[in-house]
Every structure is written in structure tokens, then in C-alpha cells.
Amino acid sequence: MLVAIVVAKCLLGYLLGSLSGSLLVGRLRGVDIRTQGSGNAGGTNALRVAGWRFALAVIVIDVGKGALAAAIGGLVPPSLPISLSTPQSQACLCAFAAVIGHCWPIFFGFRGGKGAGTAVGAVLVLAPWIAAAMFVLWLVVIACWRYVGLATVVAGIAFPLLVLAAGSSGYPQSGALLVFAFAVALLIVFTHRSNLSRMRQGTEPRIGRHSTSAS
After folding, report:
1. Domain containing residue 25
2. What is the pLDDT of residue 79?
């Protein structure tokens, strides 16, 4: 019964993740941003294609659903004698399911975004100070190189390193959070592989220059 609850939470997390902000807002405006710009259903492409108001609504939805999934995952602490029993373990599972849903949404033909915003929302609930550190690092990379994709990848890779650093400094962190952090880092690198390829080729757009690419 309790295992079924964990599975149900993960399914709910995936369904929440599948509510793509850019596609929901786009339907209200009669536009599918996957047919414009880079074709990615993420915040950066939303900004370039439809402007900052559209992008802000997208970011609020995408970050919010990650935070909601993590919160729901940790709501009911079960008593299972396995590693999945802790509230944070369930929160991490539910959150990662939401990130997967964002990248491959069942409601939109499995064509979604790249997962960063939803992951950030989850980290805001699971480890707020780590989310703050990741955001600062993201801003530093943007300021230095003006590549959104690079900044996102660097922040994603830093996630598990920050969790490890927190543990070594005495700040309590669970093994579940570390596993979640590594999983998110790998996923972010995978979903941004086209950005990395364009950077190697010298064709990746920088902030402040018009282009049809996006992170």
C-alpha cells in the first residue's frame, strides 16, 4: 500500500511536470513556440520568441510545478523500512519525475523543455541555500560569457558538488538529495547537448544578440 503511494506521488509529479508553461500560455495566445525560434518549449526560447511577459509566466509555471512536486512528495512520511521511506527521498523522487515530465510531457507529444526551471523549483524546496548558490553561479557565468546554455550546464554540474560540500561542512544532507543532484546534473548536460555542440562550433548565441537558438 505504501509503495503504491510512492508510485502515485511519482506519477503525479510526472503529470505536473507535463504541464508545460510555454505550451499552456502559448495556447492562450494561439502560439506554439516549438514551431518558432529554436523549437524548444523552455523559458529562453519563450523570451526570444514572445517577449518577457510571456517568458515570465512560463518561468513561474515551470519553477512552480517543480516546487509543488517536491512539496507533495514530502507531505506524508510513511514508515517503509527502505531508503524510499524518508520524506526527502519521496520528495526527490517526485521532483525528478516532474523534471522528466517537463522534458518529455505526455500532454504535448513528449516534446518539452530542457528541465532546468523545474529542477530549480524543486531545489528551492529541497535545499533553498543550494538553489541560491546555483543561481549566483548561473549569473556569474552569464556575466562572464553570456551563454545561457553554458550557465545552466555549469549550475547543474555544480548541484551535486554543492550537496557534497554541504555534507562535508556539517550541513545535514540526505543521500537521496545527492542522488537527485547527480541525476539532475546528468539530465541537464544531456538536454543541453545541442547547446554544447553549438558552443564548440562557435554558433551558440550569446545574451544580447538576436538568434533563433535557445537553452
Report:
1. 2-201
2. 56
